[in-house]
Amino acid sequence: MEKSRNTQFAQRVRTGIWQEVPDPENPWLATGARCHGYAQSDMVEHLDYPQTLFLLLRGELPDASQAEQLRRFLVAFCNPGPRHGATRAAMSAAASGTRTIHLAAIGLSVLSGDHLGSGEVERAAAFLVRHRDADPAALAASLTVGDTPARTAGDRRIAPGFGTLFGAVDPHAAGLAAMLRAGAGHWPVLEWGERFAAALHQAGCGWLAPGVAAAVCIDLGFAPRAAAALHQVASLPGLLAHGLEMNRQGPQAMPYVPDEDYEIIDNDDRTLAGDGN
Amino acid sequence: MDSTSIWDERRGRIVTRKGGWRIGEGVRVGRYSLLDDLVGKHGFFELLFLEITDRLPKPEFIRWVEACFMCASFPDPRIWCNQIGALAGTLRCEPLAAVTAGTLASDSILYGPGVGRLACEFIIQAVKEERAGATIEQIVARRTTADGRMRLPGYSRPIAQGDDRVGALCRVAADLGMPDGEHLSLAWRVDAYVRARSKDCLNMLGYAAAFAMDNGVTIDEGHRLFTLLVNAGVHACYSEAADEPAGTFLPMRVDDVEYTGAPPRPLTGDARA
Q1: What angle do CA B164, B165, B171 make, to 5 degrees?
Q2: Which value, to the nearest 10 degrees, does the dihedral of the CA atoms of residues B82, B88, B90, B91 take?
Q3: Are A249 and A95 in contact (CB under 8 A)?
Q4: End-to-end Cα separation, chain A, in angstroms
Q5: What domains lie within chain B, and their CATH numbers?
């Protein structure tokens, strides 16, 4: 027989982020709001979007180098690009008539993956936090020893955020890392990642974009879960732009694999209907 | 540069064992014709199982699977995934957005299909340990924290102690003539051990994991099969909220939120962009 645990639930929602100012006449209405103590009206007048994002997630305003690095991060990761599965999901949906209001949810759902997505950003961030004090060359050697790439196995992951892209070092990710590391400020996790990626080159591996995103977020003081969220925030404009561009163009606007390139192969026929599972 | 053959071979080309649609010829699901072999002859859950696993299930097993879905479909908007459906209803979202969001919320570390996967991993590993000679006490001890908390996926649930759904599903299995196997047998013995030492016991997800493993379902197959486990409850809560005036499901006054953050402060000097 079930029994209640008599869990003590909160009587009210609690938040340290947002404070609404109640209307003196109608307790259902707010006349204004504060974010971590700052009046929303002042924020509208004086803050830019990276500062606002930092404030929302960290509870304090960024210093100048943090604000500039977050701005660079948001631009660097503004678009996974039209070949990324998340973008293609948004494009495919839009072309096939999906209501535009669903494109963000569709794109972000597919962007959640552990392969080149926000899931990998979170895992890479956790990896960086765990190993940032280790010797990167020694760690790279220990992780690659005995790691023989199988030609049929797709891309390699030496660690989340580090490996191969289409069988090779990703030059775009390496370029993003170099650009972001060059930003004014002290970015020790990015620097550690650079040394780790360099040590992986002998094994044919290097930075992947989620690793770069993770390193920037850790250097900015965000936890791994927040890093994944920031990656989603950064990527959403690109997902939506491609979706909106494709909006209502019709399915013919996207490739459709012709029957001659669609091969249905037989199963190994393990069972007959109804005779087992 | 490594070979790119794995990508070259798949560029603009799909090779599938699942099936597909050839216009004018029909739809294949594995080696079956959807319209000739399956529609009207098999149920939706059999098709779901077939499309996930590439094989048709035993009829009695799939009736048990359907019973599991029913057991996870409470029309109660206090349940977290269902509340998301209700909130979507009161905000006049499309039902697909509502049910998708609510169902997605059940990918949780506390309840739903996510816990089901952990329960599968636990019972499979526990069976291996028992085969290697471990006792129930040793199996549990390996998953007990220094402060005595047993970390056993499938043996506790939020809000309630005990789980009446286990008994209901056991009755279904008995009526269908489906016996316990090695995984469920061990799950019951762990249950007895846990009951004797805490207020927890085998819950539905732990039971379902062991039963599914006993019936030849792999972890990945089970995880995929039970993906939409909670969806009927989300549907219910969405529907009712969508039928009420907009914005009236659990409305909150300003003072229903307790602010715990920084006191009012001015934006000063350097902070200004």
Answers
A1: 100
A2: 160
A3: yes
A4: 32
A5: 20-56 (no CATH), 58-106+229-246 (no CATH), 113-225 (1.10.230)
Q: In the numeric block, which tokens belong to residue A88?
A: 């293609």
Question: Using CA atoms, how far apart are residues B130 and A212, in angstroms rounded to an integer?
Answer: 44
Q: Are B73 and B231 in contact (CB under 8 A)?
A: yes
B269 burial via Cβ count (<10 Å: 0-12, 13-18, 19+): exposed
This prediction's pTM = 0.92
> Letter for the amino acid at B172?
V
Task: Give per-residue burial for B227-248: e unless 16+ CB within 10 Å, then b.
Answer: bbbbbbbbbbbbbbbbeeeeee
CB-CB contact of A181 with A193 (8 Å): no
- State ipTM: 0.90
Report d(CA B134, CA A275) in Å as an integer: 35
In 10 A of CB A135, how many CB atoms? 14
Quick one: DSSP state of residue B255? G
Averaged pLDDT in 10-residue chunks for chain B of 273 residues: 84 96 96 97 98 96 98 96 97 97 94 91 97 97 92 92 96 97 98 94 96 97 96 97 97 97 87 55
Q: Which residues contact B241 (CB under 8 A, 6 or more apart)?
A: B77, B85, B86, B87, B88, B89, B90, B249
Please say whether the beta carbons of A170 and A206 come within 8 A. yes
β-strand partners of B257: A13
Q: Please tell me which residue of chain A has the smallest CA distance to B256.
A: A12
Pairing mode, strands B19-22 and B14-16: unpaired
Q: What is the mean pLDDT of residues A88-96?
A: 96
B35-74 residues touching A, CB cutoff 8 A: 37, 42, 49, 53-59, 61-62
Closest listed residue to residue A16, CA positions, set A45, A41, A43, A37: A37
Radius of gyration in angstroms for the set of CA atoms belonging to chain B, rounded to a whole number:
24
Minimum distance, in Å, between the CA of residue A8 and any CA atom of chain B: 9
- The answer to whether residue A47 neighbours chain B at the CB level (below 8 Å) is yes
B11 touches chain A (CB under 8 A): no
Judged by a CB distance cut-off of 8 A, whether residue A96 touches chain B is no
Nearest to A264 among B19, B160, B164 (CB): B19
B248 contacts: CB under 8 Å, gap ≥ 6: B90
H or E element in which residue B27 lies: strand B26-29
pLDDT tens digits, one per residue of B47-73: 999 999 999 999 999 999 999 999 999
Q: What residue type is assigned to position B189 of the chain?
A: R
Backbone angles phi, psi at A32, to 5 degrees: -175, -175
